[in-house]
Design brief:
The chain is an alpha+beta fold. It starts with 58 loop residues before the first strand and ends with a helix. One of its GO terms (biological process) is poly(A)+ mRNA export from nucleus.
Length: 1124
């Protein structure tokens, strides 16, 4: 009824991320796991016919490794016709086969001739259901590739949950069993970290299985994400991106373990989940609702061109069958069908999802394959294999293997169906090994499906252009020269390109031979030959990143005749940049695999020496920056165009009439850095020209911040991949930051804080600070990575030759860190100061922040959190330098040992720490009634000595509470207004100790001319310090305080007001009432009777003014009622 569109969705044009590739060539002795170039007829099993696929055009089916172990061949021979045979091939080179109740595990031999291959036969636990290879997994403490058989453990789980565990594959008879409480049928088992396993069921129940020291199996439910909003409902919590447990009706398709990232992925019928897995615990970090987004993308890719698509999409059904990990992301195999199709056909799609950390990228690549089946046929039996580098995928069932593109790169390989349907044959399982797709054929054993004519890993356009470039070389023999021949420098450049082309076409041996002839290993890196290698490699890579799009007719007159690079044939600038990045990545992989990357030295650049490897990294960074800028070009064309034009003017580059400034600028990627300086200049110009209140004024700085953040963030991710390549070969790179990046961020920091922040409103300030902190995080993170790269792996200490450089960089890092964070502290942005200072260990900023906010509890928290970095010693030194001896000596008891150690070098203070005369000092402080400052000092010393004593906790708490209470009373005298002290000729250091009554008198007297509600509130608070022995009537004194507070305002001036409450709100009396209410004081019990207050001596002048009594009673009534 409905037919799919002929072309897949537009989302497929995405560059693949190709990390460092494992060598297929390996050592000169041969390939590690590579297929023999022999006919499948060379192998035979006792009763099986040989498979020969004469129909395949683009792929060969070749035997893989040596002959199958005898036990495997015997099991195949003895198997009944209805026995289910299931095989799994692991990347580590191990394979296992389930045949009935028999499990055979063997190591795939690396050579054609089998020698002593490991092969073990195990008996599975009884089960009412058939076992499959998915219910078996193996694990070892170290890499499985090199693990001895004694260290390999095996776990099998029956569909009902009966687990059988072998601690060592070497002892087949020793195993332990346990019943796992899955709640329904088990469908998958994977090995994770810590020698443990994860078991999944058909309804997405996940268990973490491990062994205790005695070898017994234990299990627990895998930890599910629980957000703080989990109690308010699934719908609401999803708005905040919170994680919630899966519903019980979800059907799990598969679980996938990503060993390098330490992550476990689970694909269910409605979501993709991710856990970060440690040795003994795990945390769910992603729960992405996939059904709505993926179903719509898949339906649109297949039926979107139908005229009645909006109506028919309701009948579309999607089933998710398998999931694999590739450099481009998670590749999900899905089958889609429409319920009204006659006949009902299932269309198979490959959906690539990019895991971006907190979520899944909104951009989804959907590749509709040419593989279809009737709806009821082979849906759940179709599985997926995606070998490195992820451009090609292989779908397989028992009858066939279907090779197709994943859609993540342009110009993918052709689709092809490879049949295994000969009598007695069939595909019983598969996997990847040695970056090859491996399948188990029942009649031929392990076979590899390889391209008949090797498909180059380069983009198609660059492959053709490189061939043209080499073919155009005049009088250059493509034969390998003898080592004794002197090869011209230009010819060496072209011949290294030829070696690179062979590498890209998987002719690894030919590529290696050509490289060895051009640059022999003996004397590598020495003299002129070493310098020539650096120059040739640099020239090729620079030609690549700065190449011309020669096929673009607008460039016809601008391409120099001597251009010998990789002329691009794509007309779209972003695609040109993507192809350049792909080719650069392939070139780096080529240098690594043929052994040239380790031999690179240095070149002269910008007037000084620079490591060649660092220059290659810089080229990659600039390509990444160019792609980011081109993406932003479409969003902020006017701003980016202005910056691009400014950069071209500074470079003196002319723009031909047939081209745009963007064409010229993005062609020469090596000069990309200059545009960011011009971007800031354009920003400053617009800030000056546009009014502060205009939308353009704010948008300009927010846009520039975003461009810089996205650009640097992408570069950091790129550098992580670069470092992985270098770490594999033990190469140190001293810097991973393109020139000018730090200067640009520093300049933007100054623009934001000096020119924009003071003029911005609160909302804009918040956005600016968040963006700025993101930039500073990237900036400081670059320093941290650079410092780490200067350290040796053993012991984490910098090498002696690098010590001076390391010390200088560390000092520079500390200075720049404080200079950039300190302005945020001055602005009171404590949240961001804490975030940056905690992450980058700026202890000075942390101490200053705690002191400014008077947050001692937070300071104590940092002392504990950073105890391994001697944060406490830093705090002690800081207090010493700032002259804050009191705070230094008043540390909590938990830090006394560190304080004692610190004070050993400060003998003039250490004696105070060891004093235990707290009782004497406390007695003296209590008895001191003459001098205020002396009593205050004695109380402080008493507290210090008490903290240093060994008294029990209960006694110490009571003692400290008493001291704190006395200090609180002294605070009332210490905070007397300065004007009042001057009028009374009192000095804070020499004045006598005043009684509570005396302090009250001072606070409420007419001499305190600037008294306010705070002074009267202090007077009220002092009433509780008056002893009963003192002949003072507290209630009378309280009425006097309130009466004098009433006299501070002219109440009669409000006569005639419609609302007697409104003008009284600003009176001292009402403000006192509000403070009492805020503290929870019951006004009904606390306030004096209103009649007694009116009759007091202080208010005698108001007796003849009825309006005063009216207003007072109204306010009394109002505030008393407010507490009922």
């Amino acid at each position: 009824m409905f037919s799919p569109r002929a072309t897949p969705s537009s989302g497929r044009r995405q560059p693949s991320r190709v990390p460092g590739r494992k060598s297929l060539a390996g050592t000169p002795s041969g390939l590690l796991f590579s297929p023999r170039r022999t006919s499948l007829a060379a192998r035979s099993t006792p009763t099986r016919a040989n498979h020969a696929n004469a129909e395949s055009v683009h792929y060969d089916v070749q035997t893989f490794g040596s002959s199958l172990p005898v036990k495997v061949m015997e099991a195949l021979t003895m198997a009944e016709a209805d026995d289910i045979i299931s095989v799994k091939v692991d990347e580590s080179g191990w394979a296992w086969m389930v045949c009935g109740k028999l499990l055979i595990i063997w190591k795939i031999c690396q050579t054609v001739v089998a020698k002593l291959c490991v092969c073990k036969e195990l008996q599975l636990a009884p089960s009412e259901y058939e076992y499959t290879a998915d219910l078996v997994t193996i694990s070892s403490p170290g890499p499985l590739e090199t693990a001895p058989v004694q260290s390999i453990s095996v776990l099998t789980v029956g569909a009902e949950g009966r687990a059988r565990y072998w601690a060592s594959l070497a002892h087949e008879g020793n195993h332990t069993e346990a019943d796992l409480e899955l709640g329904d049928l088990c469908n998958f088992v994977v090995a994770v970290r810590g020698g443990s396993f994860v078991v999944s069921s058909c309804r997405n129940h996940l268990l973490r299985v491990s062994t205790d020291p005695s070898g017994r199996l234990g299990f627990r439910a895998l930890q599910q994400g629980q957000g703080v909003l989990s109690g308010i409902g699934r719908r609401v919590s999803s708005l905040f991106g919170m994680l919630a447990p899966p519903p019980n009706d979800e059907v799990s398709g598969i679980v996938l373990w990503a060993s390098e990232a330490g992550c476990l992925y689970s694909l269910t019928s409605s979501k993709v989940c991710r856990w970060e897995v440690g040795d003994s615990s795990e945390q769910q970090t992603l729960s992405w609702e996939s059904r709505c987004s993926l179903d719509e993308n898949i339906a649109d890719a297949i039926w979107g061109s139908e005229s009645n698509y909006e109506e028919m999409k309701e009948g579309v059904n999607v089933s998710y069958l398998d999931m694999k990990l590739s450099p481009s992301g998670l590749v999900v195999l899905a089958a889609a069908w429409h319920s009204q199709d006659i006949p009902c056909i299932a269309y198979f799609c490959l959906v690539t999802l990019q895991d971006v950390g907190a979520s899944v990228s909104d951009h989804v690549v959907v590749e509709v394959t040419k593989h279809t089946t009737p709806f009821q046929e082979a849906l759940r039996t179709t599985r997926l294999v995606v070998p490195y580098p992820g451009a090609t995928a292989f779908l397989y069932t028992q009858e066939l293997v279907f090779a197709c593109s994943t859609g993540t790169v342009r110009g993918g390989p052709p689709d092809e169906r490879i049949s295994f349907s000969a009598p007695g044959d069939g595909v019983r399982g598969g996997g990847c090994c040695g970056n090859l797709p491996i399948f188990f054929s029942q009649t031929n054993g392990l076979v590899a499906v390889v391209a008949r004519q090797a498909v180059s890993i380069l983009p198609e356009t660059m492959e053709d252009s490189l061939c043209s470039s080499l073919a155009a070389a005049p009088e250059m023999s493509m034969e390998t020269p003898n080592r004794t021949e002197a090869v011209a420098h230009e010819d060496k450049t072209k011949m290294l390109k030829d070696a690179f082309l062979r590498f890209c076409r998987s002719d690894l041996i030919g590529s290696q031979v050509l490289v060895d002839e051009l640059f022999p290993a003996e004397g590598a890196g020495e003299g002129e030959e070493g310098a020539e290698l650096d120059e040739v490699v640099t020239r090729i890579d620079l030609d690549l990143v700065d190449d011309y799009p020669a096929s673009d007719p607008r460039w016809a007159e601008s391409v120099p005749e001597e251009s010998g690079g990789f002329p691009l044939t794509s007309l779209i600038i972003l695609h040109q940049l993507e192809d350049k990045m792909k080719a650069h990545t392939c070139f780096m992989d080529f240098l690594l695999q043929v052994g040239l990357l380790q031999r690179l030295g240095q070149v002269t650049l910008r007037g000084g020496p620079m490591a060649t490897r660092l220059l290659l990294c810089e080229h990659a960074e600039k390509l990444q920056a160019a792609m980011v800028l081109k993406t932003q070009h479409g969003k902020h064309g006017e701003l980016v165009n202005a910056a691009v034009s400014g950069a071209l003017r500074k470079n003196g580059a002319a723009v031909p009439p047939s081209l745009t400034p963007a064409d010229v600028f993005f062609r020469e990627v090596s000069q990309i850095s200059l545009v960011f300086e011009c971007l800031l200049e354009e920003e400053e110009r617009r800030l000056k020209e546009n009014p502060v209140a205009s939308v353009q004024w704010a948008e300009t700085v927010l846009t520039v911040n975003n461009i810089l953040k996205v650009k640097n963030n992408d570069i950091l991710k790129l550098n992580d991949n670069i470092m992985k390549v270098y770490n594999k070969i033990n190469i140190k790179v001293n810097n991973l930051s393109s020139g000018g990046v730090r200067e640009v961020i520093t300049r933007q920091h100054e623009v934001v804080l000096r020119s924009v922040y003071p003029q911005a409103d609160s909302e804009l300030r918040g956005a600016l600070c968040e963006q700025l902190v993101g930039l500073l995080d990237l900036y400081l993170g670059g320093y941290v990575a650079q410092l780490a790269s200067l350290q040796l792996r053993t012991g984490g200490r910098p090498a002696a030759a690098q010590q001076e450089r390391y010390n200088a960089l560390e000092l520079e890092y500390g200075q720049r860190r404080s200079e950039l964070i300190a302005p945020l502290l001055d602005l009171g942005q404590y949240q961001w100061v804490a975030a940056l200072s905690e992450k980058f260990c700026d202890f000075d900023m942390l101490v200053q922040m705690c002191e400014q906010t008077d947050n001692q509890s937070r300071l104590q928290h940092y002392m504990t959190k950073f105890s391994d970095q001697n944060f406490a010693d830093f705090v002690f030194r800081w207090y010493m330098e700032k002259g804050k001896r009191g705070k230094l000596l008043s540390q909590p008891s938990a830090h006394h040992p560190q304080l004692a150690s610190f004070l050993q070098s400060h003998q003039h203070l250490s004696w105070l720490h060891h004093i235990h005369a707290h009782e004497t000092l406390s007695s003296q402080a209590t008895g001191e009634t003459r001098y205020f400052s002396k009593k205050k000092t004695l109380l402080a010393l008493s507290k210090l000595t008490a903290l240093a004593s060994d008294m029990d906790q209960t006694q110490l708490s009571r003692h400290l509470e008493d001291i704190v209470e006395q200090e609180r009373f002294l605070l009332h005298q210490e905070t007397l207004p300065e004007q009042l002290l001057e009028d009374k000729n009192l000095d804070r250091q020499t004045m006598p100790l005043l009684t509570p009554h005396g302090l009250i008198t001072l606070y409420i007297s007419e001499d305190n001319r600037i008294s306010n509600e705070d002074d009267f509130k202090k007077a009220l608070d002092l009433l509780e310090y008056i002893n009963e022995e003192v002949a003072v009537d507290i209630e009378t004194l309280k009425r006097e305080i309130f009466a004098r507070a009433l006299k501070k305002d002219d109440w009669c001036s409000w006569e005639g007001s419609d609302d007697p409450l409104e003008p009284a709100r600003d009176s001292v009396f009402v403000k006192i009432l509000l403070k009492l209410i805020q503290e929870g004081v019951s006004l009904q019990a606390y306030l004096p009777d209103v009649k007694e207050l009116l009759d007091s001596e202080q208010l005698a002048a108001f007796n003849s003014k009825p309006y005063f009594e009216y207003v007072l009673r109204v306010n009394y009534e109002h505030y008393l009622q407010s507490q009922i």
